[in-house]
Amino acid sequence: MPALMFVFMQKKKTNKYDDIQTRWLACSRQGTQRKKDFDSLDMHVGERRYRNTNIKRSGCNACIKIHMTKDRASYKIYEFVEAHNHALFNINDRRFSRKNRQMKYTDFKTVLNSSSYNVGARRAHRIQTALNGEFEHTRVSEIDFKNFKRDAVACVGNKDVKMLINKLSNRRDIVPSFFFEYKCNEQKLSAIFWVGEVARINYKEFGDVILFDGTFRTNKHAMIFVPFLAVDNHKASVVVGSALISGETIDNFSWVLKAFLKCHDKQPLFVITDQCSAMKQAISMVFTEAKHRLCMWHIMKKVPSKVSAALNHDPNFNKVINKLVWNIHIGPMEFETRWHEMIHQFNLGGDTWFIEMYEI
Q1: If you ran DSSP here, which 8-state letter would residue 55 be given?
Q2: Same domain for 169 and 289?
Q3: pTM of the model
Q4: Could you report the per-residue pLDDT of 144-174, keeping only the tens digit for each?
Q5: Domain for residue 14, yes or no?
Q6: Last residue of some domain: 294, 319, 351?
Q7: Do the Cβ atoms of 224 and 245 come closer than 8 Å?
Q8: How far apart are CA 347 and CA 342, in angstroms?
Q9: CB 224 within 8 Å of CB 212
Q10: How far apart are CA 149 and CA 152, in angstroms?
Q11: Dihedral, CA atoms, 115, 121, 122, 123, nearest 10 degrees?
């Protein structure tokens, strides 16, 4: 970085060495190293606050000094030294200067947007570098990205819940059809439920059968994300509601289902979930008119852990059981017959898990 220092001074009757920066300049003119003989936070009356920096001084006398004219209409240069005692930046290294390495608004936005999609600062910097055309066209370093993300996280701190509530409240003020509710226990968020305007339309059209589960957890607060889904005419999943809960308890599920019913004003005909006992009890308490069924996908995922290793690697067993339970073209009588044949063929008559699943 060039040591060209711009010292803007007005003529005063006070001593020119009253200013810390002027004393610093005088020290460098004498060719001596500046000593840390004062506390940068210890201010005297009339002095400005300065902090110690990592800028290295080389005793360069290059400077330009300007003062205001007596009529206060313009400035006048009264001293100018052009020669430097050190090499200046070349064009290729100019991007490493302190000024050019400052992050801009686009860099801040890149880090924050990447963090929203669970992309770290290092990967965000690599993506930005590739978009800029490799490192020759990138001003900000990877450390700058990391430092900004650290500062942003420290700034948010424990206020992220309040920010979420404010964001959803602003959304409701702008879009009247947006719905959300939340509850707190001892000033701590325990559950929150929200439904967008599109989700309301989805439930009105395709809300006869809905599915929800608590498979996903957030990274920081370990809250459980509960999506409510339905299936449209194209056999695609559509969202009809979303919730975050602190734990899979009957109280939390009951509160979420009551908020769901308050938003949509009608119960679904069928509700499909996994084998969570808390969900089962909450559904029977709130959705009194709906029929509760278990998700076949969740059940079939447990089959490999419920049978022996030899049976699990038997392609014939997997073919038979999948062809039976996923077959929608057979009636109850044929299913019963083929089920008992499968149990007898693979010696599963004494397996407690298969007996329990069959009774359910």
Answers
A1: P
A2: yes
A3: 0.61
A4: 888 888 887 777 666 778 888 898 999 999 9
A5: yes
A6: 294
A7: yes
A8: 8
A9: no
A10: 5
A11: 20
